[in-house]
């Protein structure tokens, strides 16, 4: 919701100052879909508001719900006809996590990610980012609560792990986080918010300076620089070495845990040798007790997905082009596949044996194409 526009509208229409607080409470706490539902203001004012503005900055095109009702994905149409996706997940009966997008598409072009394959269109505004939370609050209140049983109808956690690279839209992401933690708006605790990044120069430093209590997650996926560059072109601009240095600086100022996201691909990064490289890399950072590895089973993106077969990467262009997107890596005909459960379990056990904290992330949302790497808009 555009608070600046709302405040100006109320002032122009000679409304008392407390009207703004009444409307904010109805929207942020009560989860109303439209101004016409706000019973604490007059019908005339409700009608005027409905003519001038909307609660949400987008139209809800479609909502997909998994059979167990633990995963939901919404397709949202923005005012310029671009589309984004957002996901709501319930890993436990008392927890709802909203996975939100920060860009339309993504400029990083990771080979295994549906968002990157669609290209980059534009950054989202802070309003478009936080409105995703507003939508889910509304949806839970009006759609789930009558039949949710023992499920708590509230959004407990927010993760910036949807479409886009948050650190490449930092001004708007920063404003959105400020709104989320604002007691007069969403009132979500900083420690219930996580921001995931593949790595952007200066990003971790700004993040720590602005939000020392918000959780940081690194989309690592490969501990070998050549392999990471092959499948994640952004590694050429901001490498494993850069991530290492910035995390070392991070731990000089903070003792907050950092999450290392590691998608496991069959035959690419799931062997014991890969686990050894990961242990060596994490130990080289130092403070490894503050690094927690989330092992994620790869989620299929499409039938046309392909990855690099040729080990030579000399002909691949990883430069940032004029449109703000990284040039695509060369492709061949090998299809990405998920590692087996045994492989993932053995990988985890190796990390634990070597004193690296690790868990296997519970898979949710894949049946509705709402799991990690599947959002395409």
Mean pLDDT value: 85
Task: Please give the CATH architecture of the largest domain.
Answer: Alpha-Beta Barrel
Number of domains: 2
Estimate the strand proportion: 15-25%
**Helix/strand order, N-terminal first:** HHHEEEEEHEHEHEHEHHEHEHE
Which CATH first-tier class of the largest domain would you pick? Alpha Beta
Q: What structural class results from the helix and strand content? A: alpha/beta
Number of strands: 12
Query: How would you write the strand order of the largest sheet?
Result: 1-2-3-4-7-8-9-10-11-12
In short:
With 377 residues, the chain is an alpha/beta fold.
Describe it.
- This protein is α/β, with parallel strands linked by helices and 377 residues long.
- Helices cover 33% and strands 19% of the residues.
- The chain has helices spanning 3-12, 18-29, 43-52, 114-117, 126-144, 170-181, 203-210, 225-231, 240-253, 272-285, 341-353, and strands spanning 58-65, 71-78, 83-92, 95-99, 103-105, 120-123, 157-160, 193-197, 215-219, 258-264, 291-297, 357-360.
- The radius of gyration is 22 Å and the shape is elongated.
- The protein starts with a helix and ends in a 17-residue tail after the last strand.
Defining traits:
alpha/beta; 11 helices; 2 domains; 10-stranded mixed β-sheet; TIM Barrel; 377 residues; two-stranded antiparallel sheet; elongated
List the helices and strands and how they pair.
Blueprint: H1 3-12, H2 18-29, H3 43-52, E1 58-65, E2 71-78, E3 83-92, E4 95-99, E5 103-105, H4 114-117, E6 120-123, H5 126-144, E7 157-160, H6 170-181, E8 193-197, H7 203-210, E9 215-219, H8 225-231, H9 240-253, E10 258-264, H10 272-285, E11 291-297, H11 341-353, E12 357-360
């Amino acid at each position: 919701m555009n608070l600046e526009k709302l405040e100006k509208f109320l002032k122009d229409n000679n409304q008392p100052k407390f009207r703004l607080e009444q409307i904010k409470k109805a929207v942020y706490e009560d989860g109303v879909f439209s101004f016409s539902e706000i019973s604490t203001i007059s019908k005339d004012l409700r009608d005027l508001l409905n003519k001038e503005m909307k609660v949400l900055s987008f139209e809800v095109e479609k909502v997909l719900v998994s059979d167990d009702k633990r995963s939901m994905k919404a397709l949202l149409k923005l005012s310029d006809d671009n589309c984004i996706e957002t996901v709501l997940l319930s890993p436990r009966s008392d927890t709802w996590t909203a996975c939100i997008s920060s860009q339309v598409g993504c400029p990083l072009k990771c080979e295994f990610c549906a968002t990157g394959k669609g290209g980059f269109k534009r950054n989202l505004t802070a309003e478009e980012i936080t409105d995703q939370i507003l939508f889910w609050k509304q949806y839970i209140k009006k759609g789930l609560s009558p039949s949710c049983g023992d499920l708590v109808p509230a959004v407990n956690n927010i993760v910036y792990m949807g479409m886009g690279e948050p650190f490449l839209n930092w001004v708007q992401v920063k404003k959105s986080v400020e709104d989320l933690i604002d007691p007069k708006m969403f009132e979500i605790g900083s420690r219930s918010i996580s921001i995931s990044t593949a790595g952007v120069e200066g990003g971790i430093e700004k993040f720590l300076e602005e939000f020392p209590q918000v959780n940081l997650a690194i989309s690592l996926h490969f501990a070998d620089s050549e392999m990471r560059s092959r499948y994640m072109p952004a590694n050429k601009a901001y490498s494993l070495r850069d991530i290492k240095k910035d995390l070392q600086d991070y731990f000089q100022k903070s003792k907050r845990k950092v999450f290392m996201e590691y998608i496991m691909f069959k035959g690419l990064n799931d062997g014991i040798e890969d686990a050894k490289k990961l242990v060596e890399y994490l130990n080289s950072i130092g403070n490894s007790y503050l690094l927690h590895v989330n092992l994620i089973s790869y989620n299929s993106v499409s039938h046309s997905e392909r990855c690099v077969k040729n080990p030579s990467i000399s002909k691949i262009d990883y430069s940032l082009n004029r449109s703000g997107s990284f040039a695509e890596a060369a492709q061949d005909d090998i299809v990405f596949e998920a590692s087996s459960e045994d492989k993932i379990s053995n990988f985890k056990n190796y990390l634990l044996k070597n004193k690296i904290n690790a868990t296997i992330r519970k898979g949710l949302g894949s049946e509705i194409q709402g799991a990690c790497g599947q959002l395409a808009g």
